[in-house]
Amino acid sequence: MATRKPFVGGNWKMNTNRSTGSDLARGVVDGLMTLDGVDTCIFPPFPYLLTIRAILRDRGSAVRLGAQDVFHQPDGAFTGEVSIPMLKDCGVQHTLVGHSERRQVIGEKDELINKKARALLEAGCDVVFCVGETLEERQAGHQEIVNARQVRTGLAEIPASLMERLVIAYEPVWAIGTGKTATPQDAQEMHRQIRELIARMYNADVASRVRIIYGGSVKADNAAELFAQPDIDGGLIGGASLKTADFVTIVKAAAEAGRAKP
Ligand code: PEP
Question: Is 94 a catalytic residue?
Fold first, then answer.
């Protein structure tokens, strides 16, 4: 069994409705009922959190509930936003911050992402912190600089003691929802660089324990090879998390990869 327990997230994005989301959650729960050796979390849209929580609870599932975003202020005049206490109230354990669609489409900057990550961790919540370069940045050979900037700024003032609650998701923007997956070797190389950076920012112990997962067109048929890489500790799954059988296969591949690692 690997020293780092694999983590797989299913990011449903702005998909599903109450009925299809419930069916999907039931299918995932049933498909993973007897599985251990992996942490699994599904991230439904905000309006369905309570419905999905009820399904997870009723079935006594170990599958966790996640939120796709949050606002860092505890309450007040922030129309349209959702606070950390609200998420906790709905039974949310993990929250995505810095997803590339928030960065690219909504325009979130590193500084705001840092505020969200810090507020969540300080409130005792778990964070899936996403980073990744665009196609232009990769073509210019800037992927290392870009990911390092996102990690350094996004994790600023987060102490080592809170890093236990944080999972880093490396998600190259050019691979998200495009069907173009990073090669296992390219993904491994970026994960290795991020882990080295965490060692420099914190220490070797934090770096060896932090889970770094890959996201970007992970599918049932390419998951095992990606997750077998030494520094890839699971995945953040978009499109394939909307298909019950595919998501279950991907989670099982992560558990299997974890068992095979030293
Ligand atoms: C994602 O939403 O984080 C993601 C990786 O999407 P996809 O798997 O569809 O590329």
Answer: no
